[in-house]
Specification:
Blueprint lengths: L2 E3 L8 H8 L4 E7 L8 E8 L16 H14 E8 L1 H7 L1 H19 L6 E5 L12 E4 L2 H4 L1 H24 L5 H4 L5 H10 L7 H4 L1
Helix pairs in contact: 2-6, 3-4
């Protein structure tokens, strides 16, 4: 299975438009939570329905929570997707880079197993994903959410999914304000860590 890096010097949606013209499709893969102090890293792999687009398909970090909710609701009706979580303890054991690739592999493998036809390309934001048992080319490049609506869709699904999980964990782990910062290294989060120490979902390798 070929995996190669491409310089981000092409027009946005190049891969989507080319695939749709050939009556095929592409998958987009992205992660959320890689830089957090607590919680899992979450990846999503998404295949948009052909010739579909929404103005909010962009980097999830640039969208407001309301905009992400609108985009997520649209994606539920206009895409196929799979999501993967890698626990904070596994992140500590194998490091965040390997954990992120593992999650990407899981979500992509899950979606490929569900689809009625193979995509023309698998597009990944910035990480060299390697997949066994498939000949589908994997292309990774920087600024993926800007250049691929499929990667942007994966970013949104992963972000909404992870944020919802962190809000639920906030109920079980009061005092850390997880619903506010979602595990990122904010001043509020660091103050809570100084007062309470790490919880069961904190990444010990990030706190040392």
């Amino acid at each position: 299975m070929p995996t190669f890096k491409r310089t981000p010097d092409f027009t946005p949606l190049l891969y989507e438009h080319a695939a749709w013209k050939n009556q095929t499709n592409v998958l987009g893969v992205d992660e959320v939570g890689r830089g957090c102090l607590a919680g899992p890293v979450v990846t999503a792999t998404v295949m948009l329905k052909p010739h579909t687009h929404h103005e909010l398909l962009q980097d999830s970090k640039l969208l407001s929570p309301k905009e992400r909710s609108v985009a997520y609701a649209w994606l539920l009706d206009n895409s196929f997707y799979a999501v993967s979580f890698i626990h904070n303890r596994i992140i500590d054991d194998i490091n965040i880079y390997r954990a992120t690739l593992q999650a990407m592999k899981r979500s992509t493998t899950q979606l490929l197993a569900l689809l009625p036809m193979q995509p023309e390309y698998i597009l990944v934001d910035a990480m060299p994903l390697l997949l066994e048992h498939t000949e589908i080319p994997v292309v990774y490049f920087n600024y993926g959410e800007t250049l691929s609506s499929s990667i942007a869709a994966a970013s949104i699904i992963a972000k909404v999914t992870r944020d919802a999980l962190m809000c639920r964990l906030d109920i079980n782990l009061p005092g850390y304000s997880l619903s506010q910062h979602k595990g990122y290294a904010t001043k509020l989060h660091k103050q809570a860590l100084e007062l309470k120490g790490p919880s069961t979902i904190h990444r010990k390798s990030f706190l040392s």
